[in-house]
Design goal:
Two copies of one chain form a homodimer. By secondary structure, the first copy, chain A, is α+β, with helices and mostly antiparallel strands. Chain A is built from nine helices and eight strands. The first copy, chain A, has a domain of 121 residues: Sandwich (Jelly Rolls), CATH 2.60.120. A four-stranded antiparallel beta sheet of chain A has the order 1-8-3-6. A four-stranded antiparallel beta sheet of chain A has the order 2-7-4-5. At the A-B interface, strand 5, helix 3 and helix 5 of A face strand 5, helix 3 and helix 5 of B. The structure holds a DNA duplex (30 and 30 nucleotides). Chains A, B: This is Crp/Fnr family transcriptional regulator.
Chain lengths: 197, 197
DNA sequence: CCGAACCCTTAACAATTGTTAATGGAGGAA
DNA sequence: TTCCTCCATTAACAATTGTTAAGGGTTCGG
């Protein structure tokens, strides 16, 4: 269905103008997939073969350390998501990619992606800009670890992701902020007390 | 001089094969520059107009918070460096870019960069791959903040950057690791004591 | 409807890091 | 050389976070 690609092309059009022929090719290479909550799309130790565009739902990328799951990133609607490290290098990675909600995804695999680069050279421009944005984004998160205290980091997260506090378990957010659930709970308490004044 | 471009093309050739005509264009657009130690190349609050390739020397990217300098990244020889955020968006940034040693740089400005995209379309592929690598790199550093203790982070840094411990002041490394110089000194002491056993 | 699993919060204590300040060494400038 | 600045280390104390454990609420499946 064309309606599956509305947000997809809305994003791509901001990066590089695509004509109808190019869009048609892309529609044949990306496929629609429904994935239920708590599905692991990529396992650590295996190579990520697919790249996803999220039409609806949430994904998270995480590491495992000592049996514990540590969130590296939470992907929202209308973003591309993958265990990039593994997908780009086509080597086994150390990250897991999992759905946090029932998801509607557009999917392309690595081979199809190479085909896309061949048939739609503009794709190099698009993925360059996406990679640049991702890099800037990663750098911003990194800066928060260097410049901010855990409490400030929580405050910023709350400000720009108010909805996620209700959509996903807190301990996932805590690990994303680099703290324990206990510590995050204390921070939340402190902030509520301070708001009273 | 052609010898100025040896490492430059050595890197680029691994990303996409360039013919002599393309290399010639690049030689005219990149210019050679000698920059003494402790020179600020990009100021926070200003737009970064240039992108650098480091032939020799070290650069560091840093933030300022409460008068303190906090290192975001240390660029080595044969890497591209810039205050990317500002350079890519062509907006004022919040980072400073400074030489840590006397440097030999290849320089291109934003306008020339756009010209390069026009005349050498392959450049989109090259910068896409560079951006992807940078993203993976940033993600790796980020994972170290999520998964490792400050002590483990120091250990990993020491392992992969042994030379930097002698080339640059420790407090710069400490801020890069997200800790204070005092804490880093304690970590170093602990490690020496443990090695005795 | 009930039990089990999951999860947020709270408490108490341990461990680590941050803060402030002092010391002494190294390196650059005049 | 001598002075001065910068810097690494150390100590003492404060603040924060981590750890472990317990209680109670919610959700989901049988």
């Amino acid at each position: 269905m064309t309606s599956d690609f509305i947000h997809f092309f809305q994003l791509l059009d901001t990066l590089s103008e695509l004509n109808e022929a190019e869009k048609k090719i892309m529609k044949t290479l990306f496929s629609f997939r429904y994935v239920p909550k708590k599905t692991i799309l990529t396992q650590a130790g295996e190579t990520a073969h697919e790249l996803y565009f999220i039409n609806k739902g949430l994904l998270r990328l995480y590491y495992r350390k000592d049996g514990e799951e540590i969130t590296a990133y939470i992907f929202r609607e209308h973003l591309f998501a993958s265990s990039y490290d593994s997908f780009l290098k086509q080597e086994p990675g150390i990250q897991y990619l999992e759905t946090l909600e029932d998801c509607q995804l557009l999917v392309i695999n690595y081979r199809q992606m190479q085909e896309l680069y061949q048939t739609v050279p503009k794709m190099h421009i698009i993925t360059r800009k996406i990679a640049e944005q991702r890099f800037i984004n990663a750098q911003q998160i990194l800066s928060s670890f260097l410049l901010d205290s855990p409490e400030e980091r929580y405050a910023k997260f709350e400000q720009s992701n108010k909805d996620l506090l209700h959509r996903i378990p807190h301990h996932i957010i805590a690990s994303y902020l680099g703290i324990t659930p206990v510590s995050m709970s204390r921070i939340r308490k402190r902030r509520i007390e301070q708001q009273r004044k």
